[in-house]
Amino acid sequence: MFSLLRTSHPPTGVEHSIYASFFNAGEKNLIVAGSNLLKVYRLVPENVQKRDPHPKLKLECMGEWRLMGWIQSLAAVRLVGASRDSILLTFKDAKLSLIEYCPETHDLITLSLHHFEDIAAKEGFIQNEEIPLIRVDPENRCAAMAVYGKKIIVLPFKRDISTLAEEGISSEGDISLEGLRIGSASSKILPSYTIDLSQVISSNSVDNIIDIQFLHGYNQPTLLILYEPSPTYTGRVAVKRDTCRLDVISIDVKERLSALIWSRELLPFDCVKAIPVPVPIGGILVFAVNSLFYVNQGIPIYGVSLNAMGDKGVTTDILIRPLEGVKLSLDCAVAEFLSPDQLVISLKGGELYVLTLLVDAMRSVKGFHVDKAAASVLTTCLSTLGNGYLFLGSRLGNSLLLKYTSREAGQIGGSRKPQEPAQKRKRLDTHGDWLDAESEELEVYGSTVETVHHKISTFSFEVCDNLLNIGPCGYVSMGEPAFLSDEFSTNSPDPDIELVSTAGHGKNGALCVLQRTVRPQVVTAFELPGCIDMWTLMGPDAKGSSAEHAFLLLSRKESSMLLQTGQEINELDSSGFCTTESTIFASNIGGNSHIIQVLSKSILVLKESNLVQTVPVEFGSPLADVTCIDPYVSVLTEDGQAGIYIFKDGKLTMTKTRIGEVPGRVKSPFVAISLYKDRSGLLTTESKNISKKKSSSASSSQNQKVKKAEDLDDEDELLYGSSEAQIGMFISEKENGSSKEVEVEKEPESWERYFDPIKKTYWLVTLRQNGNLELYSVPDFTLRFVSQNFQLLQDILLDNMSTRVPVQSSDPSFKFIESLPKVTELRLFGLGSKGRRPILMARLADHEVVMYELYAYEAPNLSPDQLKVRFKKIRHGLVLRERKSRNNREDKQTLSASTHTKTFRYFNDIAGYEGIFISGPYPHWLFFTGRGEVRVHPMSIDGSIGIFAPFHNVNCPQGFLYYNRISELRICVLPAHLVYDAPWPVRKVPLRCSPHQVVFHMESKTFAVITSVAEPSNKVWKFNGDDKELNIEDRDDRFLYPNLDKFSLQLFSPISWEAIPGTKLQLDDWEYVTCMKHLYLSSEGMHSGMRGFLVVGTNFNYGEDITSRGNIKIYDVIEVVPEPGQPLTKHKIKTVYDKEQKGPVTALAAVSGYLVTTVGQKIYIWQFKNGDLHGIAFIDTNIYIHQIHTLKNFLLIADVYQSISVLQYQPDYRTLSIISSDSHPLEVYAAEFVIDNGQLGFVATDAQRNLSIFVYSPESKESDGGEKLVRKADIHIGQHINCLWRVRAKLTDTTCNQRLLPENEKKHITWYATLDGSLGHLLPLSEKVYRRLLTLNNVLTNSLEHTAGLNPRGYRTIRTISRDLRNPSRSIIDGDLVFSFSDLSVTDKAEFSRKIGTSTAEIMDDLAELDRNAAHF
């Protein structure tokens, strides 16, 4: 059984974030990672018109990389002599990659690879659940990585520039076991090594490492290790507590020596993380679940308990004080320092707290002040972005960019009690290094009360931007779209489906309504046969963004037609427009004051539909293509001549004809031309980077000011403290925005340059027949950029201005270029916010589309008059070629009837979005907003679309027109309830509670949703010998009570996505819903004998002492008379059965009209009759069945620990028997059937993030005569899959209205949704296609350069907990890798096709076929 697994929707959850100089030293970027996706964002002001010192910033995505590995941790380091930061990534089990942005290729390059997965390092363990943590020394001297929970690896970096210069690049390509160092980085990175912790820390063995951190303010790299050498757990705290320990070691990277400096032996058993405190305070904060500690060398530990469970004598014996007025837990908390004495903490409930360290004059922490600042998203990672901005990354909700402001909230001061030991150590702070004068210890005795005042700030947070997250997708249901226009409700065998998934948790809980394709709402439609092109035109009084279109010009083969568009659409008989000839192009010009109509041999200029000028076109050849960017018009003739016209003072005049021609040399004719107005400021010969001189002078002046501040700290103040001393005597203490003390000169923020005005320039982009892509500046028509051999579609388009070598026609490469598909269309568009992101798009003769992004590139070898830009190919993965087996050519002729019909249609405001509509056999929308990501959505619902135009009218606001395959003009709008700036069009419906299950009720067209709300509870059930009794536990005010989930069932309407009033069913306390399905059960009252019911299984979760029981609940959704003014109230839920069972009900299904349930460890089959359930058959099973799926009379059951089994119900004998089961243990997360015509497989996903396919094969040796299921295929996905569902493969191709392959009739595609927010599918393959793609898969694995040096084959190999004697079966193609073939250059495609003995066209046809088989939703 062969399959292809492909990700259709990328993961959206965010797990790691850092703020670093990714592109260059002049700007800092936000780098986020989630699952296997790495994204880089730039901070951009929302409003650039008005200069603001603290603007509202937005995130703009500048790059995205999909890795062949699950990112475990992330850090940034600045290597010596580097002009940007390098990124350290760690992967399971113990891989480390050092990567860096490369401006040459606008891509990531791998500098160094390190791999510590040898048997000796693993010490015999197969599976490792410890996360490989990476930490970087604050001075960038080395990085440390904790692996396997017990080993620490050091990656040293050279810091001496002089030795670098002497060594040069002599050690390039040095390969060692410790690390493979690539290119020039080899001279900056020393070989990695493992610290022998048994030698350094001899008192006890280091194990169960909780956290490692580098400390601030030491001369040598100093590493803190927080670990638990001898673990305990909550149940043993009474006899064994305070098991955590903290050791600090100094690392000499040159000599590879380490020494223990100081340690703290007793810390609570529930320590979760350590956070280093920046200088000038220094030291470390240790977070435990119920307490908080400040630890530093040579001073007593200072700790506070945060709730009653952290108090002395409860979970710890450490002398600890309660923190007054605070009741919280630091479990799952993340924190980041805002300033040297303030850090922001996000708790597991999403609350944001600001913790202030109260510091005395000796810079010693004497107290904590906790202030609740805001309630926000449930946070996974936290990053401070420059001055005043904070990023909260989340995998349970949308990630947020916050702007924070602080203001002073008075002072708190206390009497320092004389009983406290006032032992002090004098510490001089010079350049952040501490010199501890041990001999001069000062002891202060006496009973005088000393008062210290500490300034406290309060913070306010404002949301600036958010990143949409649809994960974690726990459960997915298919439903019918509520807004489907009547025109699309055809008798197609492929139904239109939308997906509804549960997302988030707690207050971030939501439902996500997902549609992969765009389904427009049709306002009206009418037949207009024979049209080949159309344009919408503004009237003369159209001003501003709300301007409406006044005319619609339609072009036919030999005539044109003008319609006036107002309240109604009428044909204009008498106007200055030429209607007796076919129109090639029409547009507004002169700021919408005039209109041009281009005919084959002349250009008409009109004002208010009156002709004012006729310009004859004298090229001796008819016009083929026209583009217009006010005030310029470019024309291209059929024989490759080009001309430019300018519109000035109401007149259109020719400015240039022979573009780029030199006397005496014949230039190659033009194939395509396009005008472009640059608003990005990228097309310039000036250097963009901030001059090094400026930044270095800023840093030197800063150093001088710091020195001045240090002179203030005289010895008396250090010894005795000062009553006026500020907190820790920081150099710059802000008060109400004005800086007291000595003000430090700030470096300019990178986003400030967006306020600088950008000069708009005009350009002409041309492509010649010889393959030269050229950029000319307009109006002087100077050639500024040439890239040769454009038809090869290379990854990077370089400027060959200085190195041009004309290709001779005798050259073999010339013949190869000649044989390639011709470029039929070329356009350069300024997209994104304010047109800052230029995108070059080209269409080939085989309908494929190529996209390039223009990016700034600076290099010393560029001459001063060269443009400082390059083009980078955008990997979009679209396969737009037509099907190879197509016989019906009529549509093709209609589409290509006119050579000048253009397929890239720009729109600047359709439903508020900007982008390009790509028309043709497989139409797509390309949206590109200020978010900076290319979003491509198909619109397959109406087949091929030949022509398209944006249309803004009183009856169709922000809409569009298109002309479909059956010669019908449709006026449409985009459904406004969906967000299109997302990987799939999506609507997120907030619930503010945790969703668990969602099910579509077919008869009533509503969705039933199970949700739960967590509330603190002081009740607990106890067993008193005879029965259970409810006890109420009363604890003190600081006790954190556990949460009790209260479940409820609610109906939602898919029209408005509001909860239907009166349909909420609240379940009992302690009753948990384990499963819910919409099942067809036999019912005597129905004509078909079946009726759909909502069936719910529950479990009463009283605790481990009391036997679990559960209920089976059967509900019917009935129609009633709605309440006046509330149309949604026509549905009500009626309970038809609700009885307690002898055990928990954990899974449900229906077979042959009977209900199948698991009750405890038994599976029962029930008949629902006369409002009661009657048992028919049962069977004993394994440990905990959590899913049952049925197909005919077969049952597939999934056990939490004991893998999957296949059962059969025999209705004649009324028996349930086991057919076969997998004998190996497997923690199954989800299971489903795989159907490929006559073959039936069983797919299961597991806790190790694998997907396996099992088959029933009684004739094979390893199945023991059919008793055991045989694992036929497996693949590692790297994400947890909780939900699988099946859809039949696509039967029709909407483009040609033809049926696809007949075998698709019985081929099902298994879709999956992951907890990281991604969606994908498993598609069965024929053996012939599988063999071809397998060979391609292997060639691409070996030939392509993979980001961070990761190997796709290693990543996709199945992972197991114990050593498995079965070999990996594979047999599943990695679709993400295979589909990357479509984005390769022509030469790479030809080379790889030759290696596997086939042609590029054949592989692309295969990919197109596979893509269309799974074009659902």
Explain how this protein is built:
The chain has 1417 residues and is mainly β. The chain has 12 helices and 96 strands. It has a 5-stranded mixed sheet. A 5-stranded antiparallel sheet has the order 6-7-8-9-13, with no helix packed on it. A 5-stranded mixed sheet has the order 19-20-21-22-23, with no helix packed on it. Strand 7 and strand 8 form a beta hairpin. About 9% of the residues have low confidence.
Main traits of this protein?
single chain; 1417 residues; mainly beta; five-stranded mixed sheet; five-stranded antiparallel sheet; 96 strands
Q: Indicate the radius of gyration in whole angstroms.
A: 35 Å
| Number of beta-strand segments | 96
Main sheet characteristics: 5 strands, mixed
The portion of residues assigned to helices is under 10%
Number of helices: 12
Mean pLDDT: 87
Q: Which strands sit side by side, in order, in the main sheet?
A: 91-94-95-1-96
Indicate the low-confidence ranges by residue numbers: 164-179, 415-450, 690-744, 886-899
The N- to C-terminal Cα distance equals 26 Å
How does the helix and strand content classify structurally?
A: mainly beta
The best one-word shape is globular
Q: How much of the sequence is in beta strands? A: over 45%
Short account of what is shown:
The protein is mostly beta strands and 1417 residues long.
Question: How are the elements arranged and paired?
Answer:
Elements: E1 2-9, E2 16-20, E3 29-34, E4 37-45, E5 57-66, E6 71-77, E7 86-91, E8 95-102, E9 107-115, H1 119-122, E10 133-136, E11 142-147, E12 151-156, H2 161-167, E13 180-181, E14 193-195, H3 197-200, E15 209-214, E16 222-227, E17 244-252, E18 257-267, E19 271-276, E20 284-288, E21 291-295, E22 302-305, E23 321-322, E24 334-339, E25 342-346, E26 351-359, E27 365-375, E28 381-384, E29 389-393, E30 399-416, E31 424-430, E32 433-442, E33 450-467, E34 476-479, E35 498-503, E36 510-514, E37 521-527, E38 533-538, E39 549-555, E40 560-565, E41 569-571, E42 585-589, E43 594-598, E44 602-607, E45 610-616, E46 623-629, E47 632-637, E48 642-648, E49 651-656, E50 670-678, H4 692-712, H5 715-720, E51 734-735, E52 738-739, E53 761-768, E54 773-778, E55 782-787, E56 796-797, H6 812-818, E57 823-831, E58 837-844, E59 849-856, E60 869-873, H7 890-895, E61 904-910, E62 913-918, E63 924-928, E64 934-938, E65 945-953, E66 956-964, E67 968-973, E68 986-990, E69 994-1001, E70 1006-1016, E71 1019-1023, E72 1028-1032, E73 1043-1052, ...
